[in-house]
Fold this protein.
Amino acid sequence: MKNIILFVAYTCFLTHATQAQSIETRPGIWQYFGTPASDPVIDGRLLNFTWAEIEPSDNSWNWAGFDKGLSDGVKDGLPVIFMVYTKQDAPGWIYNAGVPKVTETDNRGKVIGYSPYYADADYKFYFKRMIQKVHSHVETLSPSVRNLVIGVQGCYGSTGDYISYAGNVPAQYALDGKQFLELYKEFSQYYYDEYKNTSPKIYLMSNPRNQGSDAALWTEDNCPGWQKAGTLGKGFQLNDEVTKYGWLYNLMNVPRANGEYMRVRSELAAANTSAGWWKKSPYKNMFATMCYGIMWGLDWTNQTYNEIKDAGNDSAFVFFNKYAGQKEASKSTNAVCALKDVLDAADAVRFPASVYGNVSQSNTQRYVNIANKYASKGALLEDVRSATLSEMDNIRAAGINDVGWNLLPGNYERYLHQLNANQTSTGYWNIQSADPNSMYGKFGRGFDIANNMTALYFDVDNAFLANKPLAAKYQVTIEVTYLDQGKGSWQLFYDAKSSKDKASVTVKCTNSNKWKKATITLPDANFANRGKAGSDFSIRSAGKNQNIIFSVVELSRSAGSVGGKVFNTSMQTTTNTSAVAENKAAVLSVNPNPAQQTFYVQSADGKPIKQLLIYNVSGRLVFQKNVTAVRLAVNRNEIGGASGIYFIKAQTDAGMLTGRVIIQ
């Protein structure tokens, strides 16, 4: 039975209002398919139905199961998104009516499944008719059900997957990638047009290809609703995420011209949690996955009934609900930095070929050499072949892999950034504590006294502070999760209104070997980057000459202190237009992004840039230029030439603007 204290904690983040419009797009933990679970951590449900069940014969409709499923899904007032499966779940009668049935085989000729011929004109007619009939029926439901239906995911392939075949098919039915993309566009446009004028709004959730930007960008331009991001909720530290970041992050986090954000879901299915690497530390992995989703800006993570009912996941789910949906920095109540180091075999600067081996994704010895370098800090490499392959192979790995390829550097951060991370602190992996079921410890950072790494420095995102110092306008709370190991101590310092490097509390370890949280309230924070190393606040070693490991640093403020709409309990798209204009004006335009050689920086409002600053991922200033120009060109050689992510700050008359660029 779940602890009552946890239930009280949930109520801080959940407001299950009765008015449909106030909760229609609520972010957080959503239940995946199956029997509806009653649990205070759930913010909504995903429901699935089959075309075969709904239309058992040509134009004959059976709504009994559909209606019951929707009624059961919303019975406790939670919103739902529904799906109608096709492919193997299409009704059998369509084949008797002329739609070709395509047999799918493996490379040895064994039949592994079947599919309708998607390009067939009859199939298109029946499929589109089903879409229209389902929508018409949804509009006849009682308001207590209809008003809580907030989305429909367009299903074109197996279950909700991107439209495709599995295996080999006869030549006359074969379709290439371009043809599948055109079918995806045709069906998506039809679905979108069918639901675009609904009231209350039912959004189309699209599922473009997991790899590559073509379908996702087309969808955003032509069917601007919501999207599924395949792997973002299935794990963390996945290969080639730098490339994906270059086209997906802004889609998820920059508002459209009307102020709306694209909302995104992903799911953690049983197949993911049964992988060898996951089973070794399931609660640590769940928390790391939640941190990964928060960093990306994931709005919903779908969890199975079993995961929701496992009390060991409660703390990770509450943590995700705390941050989910907060996409407008200046109106968000929380900022977080989940501490970690990244061992990227593609990083030729940190891991030169002369020491670690040829820089090649398939060079397994290079991965082994990197892992061995950090083995004393807990880094593991247990399935090296999977570590060199695709993100789906990473998710299915038989063992723990702390080395990968083309990985996003640094911590999992949202509005709170660590400065000079690798110069002032060190990474730790697979950290053991007195509680083997703790969610903390998959990653961490901390002191390395012997190598003069004695501090962690933090910068609160300028946009979070509305691009001006806080000046003690309201109090903020900092929470530091640390491993209480040994007898060392640490102290918090911060940029206060009256002192640029003010000392705060000192925390002494008691050697319990448990993860503990220190909560520090600052009534007089200024946060103008006047602290040591240009920080807003810092955590420093304070005696006993002992190393201390930290897991998460969080900063919070009340919703009333920032004003405006805060998206931690509702994601309504009603937006103050003046606030939207202010937010967009505070955005830097960086093109191309990712960049190979030269990129261009300009402010979204066209105001001249007076000073341009560029920092590498470790927080070191690598470029500074005083100018008066609307648009500046920067060559990669001017910032050192290395591939990776760089943070940009530009001073204009409107204030300090921020952005990022990926150099490939």
Observations:
- Residues 1-23, 564-586 have pLDDT under 50 and may be disordered.
- The two ends are 50 Å apart (CA to CA).
- Residues 470 and 526 are 5 Å apart (CA to CA).
- The longest helix spans residues 177-195.
